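Researcher: I'd like a candidate sequence for this fold, 166 residues long. If you have to choose between options at a position, lean toward the conservative one.
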């Protein structure tokens, strides 16, 4: 109980750097990481959206720094986390509201198989091997490429398969 009384509460909640600097730092890092996730590592993201993974990673880091004392106050971490959440919510809102923005923020599905033919250029673009294609086809219950009308890597990194109608 005595240790709670010995805490310098003013220092704990005072800013160690200007809030505007925290907002700029948070904004720059958010957009830098967003662009990396959007254009470079799409297929590694999995079923969670790019912005969701991004916000989890950087909010966790910002929170950890505030908790571990990398910043000298909790308020620094709170402003940084609020800035990151703001950008994430704004990005989601803009993607929902404006189709043109959605096309920039979320990659279009990329076709990997068309009418039973592997599209090797697209596979190379996403570093997807033929073994990985076959693994996904087996998971979909497909034994032959002739059964596949289309196969895509979706914007969230998942692979979808459309079979030929019988």
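Model: Candidate sequence:
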């Amino acid at each position: 109980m005595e240790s709670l009384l010995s805490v310098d509460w003013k220092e704990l909640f005072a800013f160690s750097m200007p809030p505007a600097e925290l907002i700029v730092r948070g904004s720059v890092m958010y957009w830098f990481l967003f662009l990396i996730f959007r254009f470079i590592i799409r297929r590694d993201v999995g079923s969670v959206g790019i912005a969701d993974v991004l916000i989890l990673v950087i909010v966790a880091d910002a929170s950890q720094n505030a908790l571990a004392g990398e910043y000298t106050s909790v308020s620094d971490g709170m402003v940084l986390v609020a800035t990151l959440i703001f950008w994430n919510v704004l990005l989601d809102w803009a993607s929902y509201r404006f189709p043109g923005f959605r096309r920039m923020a979320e990659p279009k599905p990329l076709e990997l198989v068309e009418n039973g033919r592997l599209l090797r250029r697209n596979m190379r673009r996403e570093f997807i091997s033929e073994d990985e294609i076959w693994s996904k086809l087996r998971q979909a219950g497909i034994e032959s490429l002739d059964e596949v009308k289309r196969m895509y890597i979706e914007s969230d990194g998942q692979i979808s398969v459309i079979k030929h109608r019988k």
